[in-house]
Design brief:
The protein is built from ten helices and 13 strands. By secondary structure, it is of the alpha/beta class. Helix 1 packs parallel to helix 2.
Length: 266
């Protein structure tokens, strides 16, 4: 069995790590390369860097931050936010990133995903899906009966600012067909709440596609991570607040999981 991965997420804006609630009210959490190095030393399996305002501000990603991080981190890391074309992907990978995360530009130009997968390899391309619950029974959406009620999940772009009307489950199927190697799935409803991941969303998409799913949004304690990796069937758990503010270390999380028979890299 493949080991489950624990991945700290560093949301960035203007070169600093920030954290908010439901994509709003961002507050400072530190320097990206410093935090990246710390998590690498603690035993993180990978890192994810997301420039959360690059698309909405219509600016390029901060390549200098990527380069400074690559000099200090020796585990795989993914960089997303503001990736608009193949040249952007080439620059980020050349700066030291191992993978790129694509959300907005992939929704607006799905062929970018297939071209990127062919050019750089599926293993380098991560599709980020930011999804929000819609409690409506709509005929052209995949409606799921969850403990909270029947709903479908809508894809958002531009850092959670723009609803698209796209069904997240159908979009996940499409991006897999485009050759994407992995999906970073974020519940906008749970993001920053520390109340737990959206297990219904995560499990549904994990059961629908055959590529790895990184679950994101809502981690408040170790039990939440255990739950999304078991009940949610995620291949990896991404978290931010619990690591940034010292609630838990990577080692504590992995020890807890290993004691409960979850395969992790210790």
């Amino acid at each position: 069995m493949l080991a489950k991965r624990i991945i700290p997420c560093l949301d960035m804006t203007e070169g600093r790590v920030v954290k908010g609630v439901k994509f709003k009210n961002l507050r400072d959490a530190g320097d990206p390369p410093e935090l990246g190095e710390l998590y690498s030393q603690q035993g993180a399996d990978e890192l994810v860097f997301l420039d959360v305002t690059a698309s909405s501000d219509k600016r390029e990603i901060l390549i200098d931050v990527v380069k400074r991080t690559a000099d200090r981190v020796f585990i795989p890391f993914t960089v997303g936010g503001g990736i608009r074309n193949l040249d952007d992907i080439r620059q980020v990978l050349s700066a030291g990133a191992d993978k790129v995360g694509i959300n907005t530009s992939g929704v607006e130009n799905p062929e970018l995903l297939s071209k990127a997968a062919r050019r750089f390899g599926s293993q380098c391309i991560v599709c980020a899906i930011d999804a929000k619950r819609v409690y409506e029974n709509v005929s052209d959406k995949i409606v799921v009966d969850t403990p909270e009620g029947k709903c479908w999940w809508e894809v958002y772009t531009y850092g959670g600012r723009k609803p698209t009307g796209i069904d997240a489950i159908k979009w996940a199927i499409q991006v897999e067909e485009k050759g994407v190697g992995e999906i970073l799935l974020t519940s906008m409803d749970c993001d920053g709440t520390k109340q737990g991941y959206d297990i219904s969303l995560t499990r549904t998409i994990c059961e629908t596609v055959n590529i790895p799913i990184i679950a994101s949004g809502g981690a408040g304690n170790i039990e939440h991570i255990y739950e999304v990796l078991t009940k949610g069937k995620a291949d990896a758990a991404l978290a931010a607040s619990i690591f940034h503010y010292g609630t838990y270390s990577i080692g504590e999380v992995k020890k807890y999981l290993a004691e409960r028979n979850v395969t992790v890299r210790l």
